[in-house]
Write a structure and sequence with these properties.
Number of helices of chain A: 15
Strand order of the largest sheet of chain B: 6-7-8-3-9-10
Oligomer: heterodimer
Distance between the termini of chain B: 51 Å
Helix content of chain B: 25-40%
CATH superfamily of chain B: P-loop containing nucleotide triphosphate hydrolases
Radius of gyration of chain A: 33 Å
Number of strands of chain B: 10
Shape of chain B: globular
Largest sheet of chain A: 12 strands, mixed
Number of domains of chain B: 1
Structural class of chain A: alpha+beta
CATH architecture of chain B: 3-Layer(aba) Sandwich
Number of domains of chain A: 2
Largest interface: A-B, 24 and 27 residues
Order of helices and strands of chain A: HHEHHEEEEHEHEHEEEHHEHEHHHHH
Strand content of chain A: 5-15%
Helix content of chain A: 55-70%
Chain lengths: 434, 252
C-alpha cells in the first residue's frame, strides 16, 4: 500500500474522532513541549556561560563596596570610615603575588552633558588594566593610560551608546564632554559590544553606556559625588566645600570596586580568601565590602539551569511515557474496533505488513501532529520561562528537530505492538464477527 | 481440457480448539475448469466456509496441495499469498463488507491500493459501470440499498480481473428479488467467461450454477452438473414486479 494513502487514511481516522484524537495526543503534546523547553534552557545556559567567558573571563573576582546601616554603620564610621579604598587595591596588589592585575574602580555620580543635553551614562574612574580585564576594544582613539593617571588628566573614553547620544555620527575623539561641573576631552571611543539578554544574572557590565576617566581624577574632584547626588541645600553645599578642602591622602580615598584578575579560574577561590583576609585586617573586620566570584555565580547559575533541565526532562519522559501508553491503548481499541476493515483489506490483497504499516503510520500521524503542537507549546513555554525566571532560552532548529525525532520514536515504540496485533488478525474471523 | 483454475488435492484443515482438535476438512479434492460456475452446498459445519478460505488463500491447509491458475499456492508466504488474493481472487460476502467511510468508487478502488502492477486508472469506474452503478460512484454504502451494496462489492471483486470469484452466501442478506438480480449478474459474468465458486445453502441459488458440489462433515459427498439449470432472467420475469423501488433514494 502506498505511503501517502496510509497517511491519508490515518488523518481521516483522526478527523473522524476529533476529541478522542486530541485527548490521545495530550501526553505527546506536553512531553514534546517539555523537551523543547528543556533543550532551550540548556542552550540558553550554555550561551550565558560562553558570554561570560567571552566578555570577561572567569578568572576574576570582584570586591564591591557595600553600604551598611544601623549599629554597623556607626561602628564603620569609627573604625573604617572610607570603606573600600584605593589603598586596599594597592595592598592587595602588593600582598597577593598571584594576582595578575588589580584594578580599582571608582564610580562617579556626576551628570553628563553635551551642548546642554543630558546624556545617560555610567561614569567610572579606573586604570589602564580595566580595559584588559574587561576585554574592551576601541573603535577609535586610545584608552586611559598611566600618564593620564599620573597627570590627573581631564580625559575620558566613552562607550558606543554615549558616543551616539552625544555626537551621533561625528568623530568624538578630541571633542569635549561635560561631566559634573568640569569639561573632559574624549580620547577614545569603544567598539559597540552586544551582550545577550539574560546575562544580567552575572556581573557583566554593559559597556556601551560607560564613560571611563583616570581613577585619580575620579577620586580627586569627583570624590564628593561618590554615592551622593549633587547637594541642593545650603548645609549640603557647605559639607561639600569642607570636603573639597579636607582631602584625605590618595590611599584613603573611597572607591566602589576592586577587580582582581588571577591567571586561572581555579585560583579565584584562593584570591577571594586572600583578599578577604587582607581587607579584614585593613577594615578592622567591618563587613563594608562583599566579594563576588563570577566563576562561582556562573557555576551556581549553571547548576540551577541543570536542575531545571532535569525536572523538565523528567516531565518530558513521564509525559511521553504516559502519552505513549495512551496512544497504545487507543490504537489497541481501534484495532479491535476496526477488525472488519482489516479483514476486508486483507481479503482484497493487503499483506500482514501492509496492515502493520498502516496502523504504525496512524500512530505516527498522531504523535507527529502531537509533536508539532507540542513544539508550539514548548516555544511558548520557553518564552514564559525567559520572562518570569529571567533566564535566557534559545529555541534552536536542533531542538525542534530533536522533538520531532522524539515524537516519531514515541510513535514507533508505542504503535508497534498495536500494529502487530492488527497484522495478526485473521481476516475471515474478523469478517464473520457481527 | 483447459488447465483448471482451481485444482485442490486432498486438502485437510485441523483447528486446535483447546484440547479437542476439530477436523474441518478431511481430504477434499476439487477441480474447477475455467468458465465454470460451481455451487458448494452443505449444512453448517460441513466445512464449506473452511474450503472457501483455503481456496481464497486467506488460510493455509494443514495438508494437501492447491494449485490456483496453475500455480502451487499451498505453501506460500503471507506476502505472496496476499498478492495472489489481490490479483487472482475476487471475494463477495454475505454482508457485503464495504468500508462505510469510503464512497462506492473508493471501495471499488481499494484493491488497487495493494496492487503490485500498474492498473489503468479507470478500472474502478469501469467495474462500477459493469455492475450497473456508474451513477452511484460517490454514494456511501449507507446511501445504497442492499442489492446495490452487493453490486459495489462485486465490482470490487472484479476490478483487478481475477481468475476466480468466490462468493460466500451472496444472496443471504437480500430479499428474493435483489438476490435474483445478483444471481443474474453472476450468470452474465459467467457467460462472459468468469469462473465462479458460490457457497450457499439455498438450492434455488445453487440451481443457477453449472455444477453443484455437496459437502458434509469435511468431505465432498456429491459432485454433479446441474441438468436443469435455471436462468435468472426467466426467474425474474416470473417474479411479481416490485411495488416500491427498494433502493433508498440517495441524498446528493
Amino acid at each position: 500500500m502506498k505511503f501517502w494513502s496510509s497517511i491519508l487514511t490515518g488523518i481521516s481516522e483522526l478527523l473522524a474522532h476529533k476529541l478522542r484524537s486530541l485527548l490521545t495526543m495530550l501526553g505527546v503534546i506536553f512531553g514534546i513541549a517539555s523537551v523543547i523547553a528543556m533543550v532551550s534552557i540548556g542552550a540558553g545556559a550554555r550561551q550565558e556561560a560562553l558570554e561570560q567567558i567571552r566578555l570577561m573571563g572567569v578568572n576574576v573576582i570582584q570586591i564591591n563596596r557595600r553600604a551598611l546601616s544601623g549599629d554597623l554603620a556607626l561602628e564603620a564610621q569609627r573604625e573604617s570610615p572610607q570603606g573600600v579604598t584605593y589603598g586596599d587595591a594597592k595592598a592587595i596588589g602588593e600582598l597577593y603575588d598571584a594576582a595578575e592585575r588589580v584594578v580599582p574602580v571608582c564610580r562617579v555620580f556626576g551628570e553628563v552633558r553635551h551642548n546642554g543635553t543630558a546624556i545617560p551614562a555610567k561614569v567610572l574612574g579606573t586604570t589602564p588594566d580595566y580595559s584588559r580585564v574587561n576585554r574592551l576594544a576601541l573603535a577609535s582613539g586610545r584608552f586611559v593610560d598611566d600618564g593620564d593617571i599620573e597627570r590627573h588628566a581631564q580625559v575620558c573614553v566613552i562607550g558606543s551608546e554615549v558616543k551616539r547620544a552625544a555626537f551621533f555620527l561625528e568623530d568624538a575623539v578630541g571633542k569635549n564632554l561635560r561631566i559634573g561641573t568640569q569639561e573632559f576631552q574624549v580620547i577614545g571611543v569603544l567598539e559597540e559590544r552586544r551582550v545577550q539578554a539574560g546575562s544580567s544574572l552575572l556581573s557583566l557590565p554593559d559597556v556601551n553606556e560607560d564613560i571611563y576617566m583616570p581613577i585619580t581624577v575620579a577620586m580627586d574632584d569627583f570624590q564628593i559625588y561618590v554615592e551622593q547626588a549633587i547637594p541642593v541645600d545650603i548645609s549640603g553645599f557647605i559639607q561639600l566645600l569642607a570636603k573639597l578642602f579636607d582631602r584625605p591622602p590618595l590611599d584613603q580615598r573611597p572607591i566602589t570596586q576592586i577587580i582582581v584578575q588571577v591567571p586561572d579560574e581555579s585560583q579565584t577561590w584562593e584570591a577571594a580568601r586572600v583578599a578577604a583576609r587582607i581587607l579584614e585586617r585593613r577594615h578592622k573586620a567591618i563587613p563594608d565590602h562583599e566579594i563576588v566570584i563570577p566563576a562561582e555565580l556562573l557555576r551556581q547559575s549553571q547548576r540551577t539551569h541543570r536542575i531545571f533541565s532535569i525536572v523538565m526532562g523528567a516531565i518530558a519522559s513521564i509525559s511521553l511515557l504516559v502519552g505513549g501508553i495512551g496512544i497504545m491503548n487507543i490504537m489497541l481499541a481501534t484495532v479491535t474496533q476496526r477488525a472488519r476493515e482489516i479483514g476486508i483489506r486483507r481479503c482484497v490483497g493487503a499483506s500482514r505488513s501492509d496492515i502493520a504499516r498502516q496502523f504504525l503510520l496512524e500512530a505516527l500521524v498522531i504523535t507527529s501532529i502531537g509533536g508539532i503542537l507540542g513544539i508550539f507549546l514548548g516555544i511558548e513555554m520557553a518564552t514564559l520561562i525567559s520572562q518570569y525566571a529571567g533566564w535566557h532560552t534559545i529555541v534552536s532548529g536542533q531542538a525542534v528537530l530533536l522533538s520531532l525525532v522524539v515524537a516519531v520514536v514515541t510513535g514507533v515504540i508505542f504503535g508497534l505492538y498495536p500494529a502487530m496485533r492488527a497484522a495478526g488478525i485473521q481476516p475471515m474471523e474478523a469478517l464473520r464477527a457481527e | 481440457m483447459a488447465e483448471p483454475v482451481v485444482l485442490a488435492e486432498e486438502l485437510t484443515k485441523d483447528y486446535a480448539t483447546g484440547i479437542v482438535a476439530v477436523h474441518a476438512l478431511r481430504g477434499v479434492s476439487l477441480t474447477v475448469a475455467p468458465g465454470e460456475m460451481v455451487a458448494i452446498m452443505g449444512p453448517s459445519g460441513s466445512g464449506k466456509t473452511t474450503l472457501l478460505n483455503l481456496l481464497g488463500c486467506v488460510d493455509l491447509p494443514s495438508d494437501g496441495r492447491y494449485w490456483l491458475d496453475g500455480r502451487d499456492v499451498s505453501s506460500l508466504q503471507d506476502s505472496a499469498l496476499s498478492r495472489i488474493r489481490n490479483e487472482r481472487i475476487g471475494f463477495v460476502f454475505q454482508t457485503f463488507n464495504l468500508l462505510p467511510r469510503l464512497t462506492a468508487l473508493e471501495n471499488v478502488r481499494l484493491p488497487l491500493l495493494y496492487a503490485h502492477n500498474r492498473v489503468p486508472q479507470d478500472a474502478p469506474a469501469r467495474a462500477l459501470e459493469r455492475v450497473g452503478l456508474a451513477d452511484r460512484g460517490h454514494h456511501r454504502p449507507n446511501q445504497l440499498s442492499g442489492g446495490q451494496q452487493q453490486r459495489v462489492a462485486i465490482a470490487r471483486a472484479l476490478v483487478l480481473d481475477p481468475a476466480v470469484i468466490l462468493a460466500d452466501e451472496p444472496t443471504g442478506n437480500l430479499d428474493s428479488r435483489s438476490g435474483e438480480e445478483i444471481i443474474l449478474l453472476f450468470q452474465e459474468l459467467n457467460r462472459e467467461g468468469a469462473t465462479m465458486l458460490i457457497v450457499t445453502h439455498d438450492l434455488q441459488v445453487a440451481n443457477h450454477a453449472s455444477r453443484i458440489v455437496q459437502m458434509r462433515d469435511g468431505r465432498i459427498t456429491g459432485d454433479e452438473p446441474v441438468t436443469d439449470r435455471l436462468d435468472a432472467r426467466d426467474v425474474l420475469a416470473e417474479m411479481p414486479a416490485p411495488e416500491v423501488e427498494p433502493a433508498k433514494e440517495a441524498e446528493p
